[in-house]
Inverse folding.
């Protein structure tokens, strides 16, 4: 289906993916954590922040970061509906990440001026996202759905697609994914551990970001 853009996003999905080797997948339960966490990630060189819509505080956290940390680019993760996309845009998100893909979510993101990284795990899902104009996709859940071998196989028929594998990616296996020509970046939750948030250990999050920034393609 041809989707109509109502607002042009400030950044394309590919620009979001190419800013750093890793997009952190973030779960926040406390609005007080949002700004110091975002500042720590930015200090470590990671600016594209995926705050997942998995907690009641997620939207307030996005809003806080968008207002107080101008060097961060806030994105919304776990976008599963048009309502999620609208709420994320209202909270200041500039991009969206979805665990799967529907044209309704794609259209809602275009209406809201959000660039979208649609989640895919099969060839048919890639084709549906491509039909709607998406060529920068999230591969989720990456490790469970076939890992780097799957991405290599997709590189044949889907030679024009770039992926952000997410789910089971670690500092140990990230460079294996990043060495594939069709991988633009990876996503992972390890940059923002729950215990570091609980302890207010912003230095640890900054260090994890700095290390992630330096991950090289194998
Ligand atoms: C998620 O959506 O939870 C991401 O895929 C993060 O997965 P990870 O915890 O394995 O990095």
């Amino acid at each position: 289906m041809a989707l109509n853009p109502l607002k042009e996003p400030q950044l394309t999905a590919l620009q979001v993916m190419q800013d750093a080797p890793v997009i952190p997948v973030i779960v926040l339960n406390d609005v007080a954590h949002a700004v110091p966490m975002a500042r720590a990630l930015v200090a470590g060189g990671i600016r594209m922040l995926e705050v997942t819509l998995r907690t009641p505080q997620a939207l307030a956290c996005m809003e806080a970061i968008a207002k107080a940390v101008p060097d961060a680019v806030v994105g919304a993760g776990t976008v599963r509906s048009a309502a999620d996309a609208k709420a994320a845009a209202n909270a200041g998100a500039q991009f969206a990440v979805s665990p799967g893909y529907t044209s309704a979510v794609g259209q809602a993101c275009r209406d809201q001026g959000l660039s979208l990284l649609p989640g895919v795990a099969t060839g048919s899902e890639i084709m549906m996202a491509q039909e709607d104009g998406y060529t920068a996709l999230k591969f989720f859940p990456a490790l469970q759905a076939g890992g780097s071998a799957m991405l290599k196989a997709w590189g044949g028929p889907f030679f024009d697609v770039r992926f952000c594998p997410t789910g089971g990616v670690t500092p140990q296996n990230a460079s294996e994914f990043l060495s594939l020509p069709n991988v633009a970046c990876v996503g992972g939750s390890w940059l923002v551990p729950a215990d570091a948030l609980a302890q207010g250990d912003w230095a640890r999050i900054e260090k994890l970001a700095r290390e992630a920034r330096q991950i090289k393609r194998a």
